[in-house]
Amino acid sequence: MSVGAVSSVATTSQSSSITTASKKSTLDYDAFLKLLVAEMSNQDPLNPTDSTEYVAQFATFSSVEQQIQTNSRLDSMMAVSALTQANSLIGRTITSADGQTSGVVAAVRAGSLGIEAVTDGGKTVLLGSGTVVE
User: Fold this and answer.
1) Where are the beta strands (DSSP E) in the chain?
2) Same-domain status, 67 and 116
3) For residues 66-102, b (16+ Cβ closer than 10 Å) or e, as one string?
4) Are 55 and 17 part of one and the same domain?
5) Are 125 and 96 in contact (CB under 8 A)?
6) Backbone torsions φ then ψ of 43, nearest 5 degrees
7) Separation in Å, CA 121 to CA 59, 95, 117, 125
8) 3-state secondary structure of 22
9) Residues 67, 110 within the same domain
10) SS3 at position 104
11) Which InterPro entries does this entry report, sorted A to Z (predicted)?
C-alpha cells in the first residue's frame, strides 16, 4: 500500500470537488456528499475519523445552507417592501441629493444600486439619503 498515492488521489479528488463547488453560488448537498465520500474513502485506515465528526460536519453544513436561504428570502422581502414604499412617490416631485436632477416621478424600479425613481423627463434619481420629495 502506497500512502503517497492515496494522499495524491485525495488531493486531486478534493480539489476537483472544491473547484466544481466554487463555480456554483452555494454548495449543494450533492457536492457536500461527494466531499464527505472522498474524505471517508481517503482517510487513514490506522486512525479513522470518528463518526460524530461526520455528523457535526453535516449539521454545520445544513445550518449554513439554511442561513443562506433565509438571507436570500429576507433580501427579496426587503426589495419588495422598498418598491411598495417607493410606489407612493409616483406623481410627486423629487430632487436628487446633489440637486442636479429634479422632476415628477413617473415610475419606480429596482436598479443595480438600489431603488430608483424615473422622472417624467426620463431621468433617474437613486432614492437614498439626501433625496428630497415634495
Assistant:
1) 93-95, 102-110, 115-119, 124-126, 132-133
2) yes
3) eeeeeeeeeeeeeeeeeeeebeebeeeebbbeeeebe
4) no
5) yes
6) -80, 165
7) 54, 13, 11, 11
8) helix
9) yes
10) strand
11) FlgD
Cβ–Cβ < 8 Å for 105, 71: no
Q: Say how far residue 19 (Cα) sits from the centre of its chain.
A: 18
- pLDDT tens for the chain, 134 residues: list them: 233 333 333 333 444 444 444 444 456 777 777 887 888 888 877 877 777 887 888 888 888 888 888 998 998 898 888 888 888 888 888 888 888 888 898 888 887 788 888 888 888 888 888 788 88
Provide the residue range defining the domain that includes 131: 50-134
User: One-letter amino acid identity for 30?
Assistant: D
- Enter the pTM of the model: 0.49
